[in-house]
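The data are quoted verbatim for reference:
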Amino acid sequence: MESFEVELVENRKKLFIRERFRFVAEVFLVFLGIFLFLLIPRVLFPILVDESNIFFGPIYYLLRAIAILIALPIFLFISNILFETQKKNIIIEEDITPASAQIKLFSISKDNFGYQLLYGLLILFIVFIPLDFLGYYFFPATLEYTAVALSSQSTDSYLLANYSIFIFSVLIIQLSVAIYEESLTRGFLTIRGCEYFHKISAVIIPSLYFGLMHFAYFLNPASRNFPIWIPFIWFLQTFFVAILLSIFIIRKKKIFPLIFAHALNNIISAHAVWNYLQGNDFMIVTMYLYLPLLIVSGILFIWQFPRIKNGISDGFSEIKTYFKANIKKGESKSDIYFRILFDIVIGLIILLFGLLFAV
């Protein structure tokens, strides 16, 4: 009997590892495909347009977003053929391939546009804006770090330009950044992760990747004069936000609210950075930028409190299942520790892919 239980545990762990490494294989293939598509903006575009050109940054980021949007469904289709990830033994009303599911995330109709816009506004005003403001207010060095880390890149030189060039560039760049980051992290890693393992594992793994990719700005030579706790604060912020956004997309299967909130927040945050680089005091930025936005946050919080409360409650319920043993599957506490540790390892492996392929 004891040997049977040991064998059962070993088989469960083998299945656990196999599922995650199938996911890693799919991620490797998709990241490789994205890398190939990104050769156009990364290699060919700088040959055609000088990096000092004011249009270089906006066009570069726009091409990057287009390349990732095209590469994702193509290589999801290829990976589906190679790894046979579709569960053929399950009959569903509509046969949706991973590539089709990726595209479907972007669907907007007259009937659901209103609620998608509402969720986008809630994410922006209840999550992004207060978190950014509190980060800059309590840790003012993070604003300087962000300004130095970003403005040192030729693609982000618009942060040092006059306001007309800045506003033209920031609208295109931050919309492009939001599109490709949400499509890659939530639209691909989170949604596909749900097909392989525990939902919250599909939340934790891409969130760790997303947070660590922001922490990786510390590798920028211009950032190394700052203490390491500053990029660590940035990591914690982005990791926390990524968890919330991943839970949202798992529950709602819609990506527009995430892109909408992410893009607008980046535009707002870029204004704070631009003002800092212009020599303006953060209290002035607070008065004219963040204070009006925080008032809107308060109004939205009161108006939509029942919806927000239910969302937080449901999110916590989902997260708690991650730290509980599944009795039906015969899980033990050691299985929980193994799952958490292995998810961290998978997140680090995907981070290495991201750094290797510069995704």
